[in-house]
Amino acid sequence: MIDVVTIGVAVPTIGRPTLERTLEAMTQQVRDGDQILVVQDTFGRRDPTVEARVARFGTCFRYLEHDAGQSFNGVFQTNHAFAHMSVDLALSHSDDDVFAPHAFDTIRRLGGLYPQHPILFRCISPNGRPTWQDGRQGLRRHRLGGGSLAAPRRYLRPYNYPCDGIDYYWVCEVVALAAADGKLPVWTDEILMYGRAMER
What we know:
With 200 residues, this protein is of the alpha/beta class. It is built from 5 helices and 8 strands; from the N terminus they run E-H-E-H-E-H-E-E-H-E-E-H-E.
């Protein structure tokens, strides 16, 4: 068992107005050692206000920039954040998604009980559907995205680009690597994230 599980969240952004709400949902949940890495995609343009917008959230929130020479839905910025994390569990998160108020507590509890195991949890999509129906967990393409995974850093891999179904295949790769070491995924039906800033 791990006494205190640290959590890292990669938040790629171009500086959309939703960023504050996304970060605000984490402010009461972060603990010492957590790393919320907000990475601005500076390919083609840079929003000079983003760094100050991130800084006001506190020491667990860190601003980075990354110009990959192209843009693709924040994938390159997410990978950049992953490369700078030194936490127990890493998550990917959009700059318009919102964690449930109890999300980090649930992830820490499960991470402490099952060290090095991937944790899969439910999200609510922008159309109001949960990632899976109650008790019907499974790796399903077009249903299970990267936002549903807390990945142990030991098994963390970057997103592969280009790839159709990029989130799904990233989840499958992390889960398969852990399973090869006997660390099967831990599933919970709890809803821990709401897509595109839906009301909680």
